[in-house]
Amino acid sequence: MLPQVWMSAVITVLVAVLLTVAGIVEPIYRPSLLGLSVVFWCLYFPDKVSLGSAFICGLIADSLTGALFGSHALGFCVVAYLTTLMNRRLLMFTWVQRILFIFVVMGISQAIINWGFAIRGDAIPGLNYLLPAFTSALVWPVWSLFMRWIHPQRAMPR
User: Fold this and answer.
1) Among 60, 64, 76, 63, which residue's Cα sits nearest to residue 113?
2) Tell me: the pLDDT tens digits for 22-62?
3) Which residue of 4, 49, 70, 110 pairs with 41 in a disulfide if CB–CB is 3.0 to 4.6 A?
């Protein structure tokens, strides 16, 4: 990766971590900003961001939330794979279609994370586990604009 791309990636991960730790919203409604960062990087820079980056972001999310170590990492790897797989199609989607895609992949990620909670023996929340996926889909347009603003423009695809 270019140094500018690395620097903007580090800044966006730090902002996502700070907003996650700040606890502005209840955990059940909290959007997965690290997951949204993974989607953004895999959507616009699939050649520079890999499953390894998603795995590292997932480990960071696991350590922040106290989840079963590796559950966020596995969920983010699935998100990165699906986003990279549908990369060119997603770039042609409208905003509404992208938001629906974000809801679906974040719902899959939340299902994997809750599977980790079930393995640990915690109570399964029912369909409430989709609330972070819903809020992530709602936050996606704002987060995407923030990521585009923070990223160097000459590296963005046209």
Assistant:
1) 76
2) 877 777 788 989 999 999 989 888 887 889 989 998 999 88
3) 49
For residue 34, give every residue at least 6 positions away whose Cβ sits within 8 Å of its Cβ, in sequence order, or none.
13, 16, 17, 20, 57, 58, 60, 61, 72, 76
Q: What is the tens place of the pLDDT at every residue in 102-126?
A: 999 999 999 998 888 888 888 777 7
Angle (nearest 5°) at CA 72 between 124 and 60: 130
23: left (phi over 0), alpha (psi -120 to 50) or beta: left
What letter represents residue 62's amino acid?
D
Q: How far is it, in rounded angstroms, from Cα 130 to Cα 126?
A: 9
